[in-house]
Amino acid sequence: MSPTPEERRAARHQFGTVASPPTARRGPSRGSKQPITVDAIIDTAFGIVAREGYDALTMRRLATALETGSSSLYAHVVNKEDLDELLIGRLCAEIDLPEPDPGAWREQIVGVCAQLRDQYLRYPGISQAAFAAAPSNLDTLRLSEGMLAILLAGDIAPQTAAWAIDALTLYVNAYCLEASLENRRPGRDEILRRFAALPDTFPQTKRYAAELTSGTGHDRFDFTVRLMIDGLV
Amino acid sequence: MSPTPEERRAARHQFGTVASPPTARRGPSRGSKQPITVDAIIDTAFGIVAREGYDALTMRRLATALETGSSSLYAHVVNKEDLDELLIGRLCAEIDLPEPDPGAWREQIVGVCAQLRDQYLRYPGISQAAFAAAPSNLDTLRLSEGMLAILLAGDIAPQTAAWAIDALTLYVNAYCLEASLENRRPGRDEILRRFAALPDTFPQTKRYAAELTSGTGHDRFDFTVRLMIDGLV
DNA sequence: GTATTAATACGAGCGGCGTTCGTATGATGC
DNA sequence: GCATCATACGAACGCCGCTCGTATTAATAC
């Protein structure tokens, strides 16, 4: 009996893949349609999120894209939450972790955060899933292990390093989640107009409306990440 | 004609309440049941979230608690998103903003962040709604106005102050969102056990497992907020 | 060569969600 | 007394995640 989805999930949290013997395929494979695999599910899911955003990723929608029924997915994935974890896992797995260089730890950490940010932004809204992702997933642990190694090489105290990693990843998640919601909001011009129309009980907001609404590109992101990193010993 | 929910929402974003004349109540009011009002809806919603968490707050569930049908809510609230905004608005409205004291701006900002955190934590998961909340809501603007005033009094450059407020509120949101998901996760003991069972490709994680899983109470929160604030000029 | 068995696939259906629509209710102004 | 109109609400629509019973297929055992 090949591993159930539950067993696969457990393996992702506990040990490296048990390398279950690739049991020869059985079961129906009507016509030219290729069989459903976990990888195919993940690939298709990423496609949907990239094109239509995370909210469009439903089990039914995903099944339709795979030309099957939603119930078929549950033979490969425990539930939606499990699918989310698989997506976040793959995302983290693709982060390039540099060999720690004691003289360049700040740039290295900034680089990792930027990579993570760009991965999230490629798949709008997926950071929602990142918040729920369990901290014991092997792929996400690989990421924190790499960040920890960089900070330790930079002579940061272990406790400080651990909390800094938490703070940084939490901020990256939040920044990307907010960024993915930005299209639902009024544009900068509209906000400036509303700020100008505010009553005089909002003097600072009116006066510094430009500063409050500025931050094109990733200026705000860079500002905050640097703020945190420069504060480390 | 008394204001439609849409008009009420617009008022929250544009101008102070237009103080629509409190038209005497009309319509059915069968038996002793008191009429549905926006305030009653908000109060009941907070009760549900406080007791059962944000995910339990559905329009149907809310309507049931008010002893009515879900469709009745739409006479007072535009939609679920609007309800979320009302909740976040009230939450922000209850934050106590101190008179800016140039000599105590750090403590003042920390205090405001801690208040915000405690408000969010009182209603588990509600920070999900905070992410989506539009930045032009009057109650949330009052909060950022107050924080801006504190930072400016501390001689922080306007642009730095604006971005710092963004970073701080984003972090508070993220921290509280993660905190509300914590009960779904394995406890600290279980995580330590898993870390110990990791392969040797995770040397730092294994060695500093204690540091990585520490941070009872709000230690991690305090660490990060101080990290950001101390980095300001 | 045939029967057995395990793996896979999937349609139908359950309960719940946000939201809309048509209609009923009843206090108010004339 | 009657028309008006804010208010209230049941029924239904199209989604959602998920489960269950069953059908299909390929490897295996005899």
- What is the radius of gyration of chain A? 22 Å
- Total separate domains of chain A: 2
Instruction: Please count the helical segments of chain A.
Output: 13
From the spread of the alpha carbons, the general shape of chain A counts as flat
Unreliable runs of chain A: none
CATH fold description of the largest domain in chain A = Tetracycline Repressor, domain 2
The main sheet of chain A comes to:
none
Largest interface: A-B, 60 and 60 residues
The tally of beta strands of chain A, per DSSP, is 0
Share in helix of chain A = 55-70%
- The amount of beta strand of chain A, in percent, is under 5%
- The structural class of chain A is mainly alpha
What's the assembly state of these chains?
homodimer
* CATH architecture type of the largest domain in chain A: Orthogonal Bundle
| Topology of chain A as a string of helices (H) and strands (E) | HHHHHHHHHHHHH
How would you summarize this macromolecular structure in one to three sentences?
The first copy, chain A, is mainly α. The first copy, chain A, has helices at residues 5-13, 38-52, 59-65, 70-73, 80-93, 105-122, 127-132, 138-153, 158-180, 188-196, 203-207, 209-213, 219-230.
Walkthrough of the structure:
The structure is a homodimer of 233-residue chains. The first copy, chain A, is an all-alpha fold and 233 residues long. The model of chain A has no long low-confidence stretch (mean pLDDT 91). Chains A and B meet through α8, α9, α11 and α13 of A and α7, α8, α10 and α12 of B. Chain A binds a DNA duplex (30 and 30 nucleotides) through α3 and α4.
